[in-house]
Amino acid sequence: MAKIIGLTGGIGSGKTSIMKHIETLGYKVYYADDAGKKVMQQKEIIEQIVSLLGKDVLDENQDLNRKAIAEIVFSNPEKLKALNEIVHPAVAKDFDNFLKDLKENELVIKESAILFESKANENCDLVILITAPEDIRIQRVMARDNSSFEEVKKRINNQMSDLIKEKKSDYVINNLTLSDSFKEIAKILKKNKTFCC
């Protein structure tokens, strides 16, 4: 069985930049958020989402319009919960398939923005939380996505707070500068390395 390290953080925390760095170090990585996008291209998943949210979430090519979905679910917690109940099991199945190709005791880092919300942390050997002050996170996302302050704030408010995540995590990295965060993550991985690379 592979050793699984969960890596999570709210929007704008910088977790994806840290994951990309981990990947350059030669570790096996799994991006649950990317897997979510991939499973949302499956015909049966599209049908379930359209049934839940309506045909307005489809674009002209009959593919899911992620922006239209976000506008609905981030202002409707019940719809967000129902959407997650469609997508999470499909991502969990995809991750199980990913693990089949790994060696015994191999270390894999699994990135997920909603690691705790999806209860995926229960299958991790340990969890690393990436945090940053909220004002910095908002600035990062506004610059990255060309989003408004209100849009980013709404998304943050729909995520579990860092205070709750900190209590559930084994390590917390306050990501103010990537160079410092890269040093911290390298120490954590070295300490918890089984075999890699």
Write structural notes for this entry:
Pathway: Cofactor biosynthesis; coenzyme A biosynthesis; CoA from (R)-pantothenate: step 5/5. It is an enzyme of class 2 (transferase). The protein contains nine helices and five strands; from the N terminus they run E-H-E-H-H-H-H-E-E-H-H-H-E-H. The relative contact order is 0.23. 52% of the residues lie in helices and 13% in strands. With 197 residues, it is an alpha/beta fold. Strands 2-3-1-4-5 form a five-stranded parallel beta sheet, with helices on both faces. The mean pLDDT is 92. It has one domain: 3-Layer(aba) Sandwich (Rossmann fold). The two termini are 17 Å apart. Helix 2 packs across helix 5. The longest helix is centred in the middle third of the chain and has 23 residues.
Task: Kindly state the percentage of residues in helix.
Answer: 40-55%
Instruction: Report the principal-axis shape.
Output: globular
| Spans of at least 5 consecutive residues with low confidence | none
Q: How far from one another are the termini?
A: 17 Å
CATH superfamily, by name, is P-loop containing nucleotide triphosphate hydrolases
Function: Catalyzes the phosphorylation of the 3'-hydroxyl group of dephosphocoenzyme A to form coenzyme A.
Family: Belongs to the CoaE family.
Keywords: ATP-binding, Coenzyme A biosynthesis, Cytoplasm, Kinase, Nucleotide-binding, Transferase
Protein name: Dephospho-CoA kinase
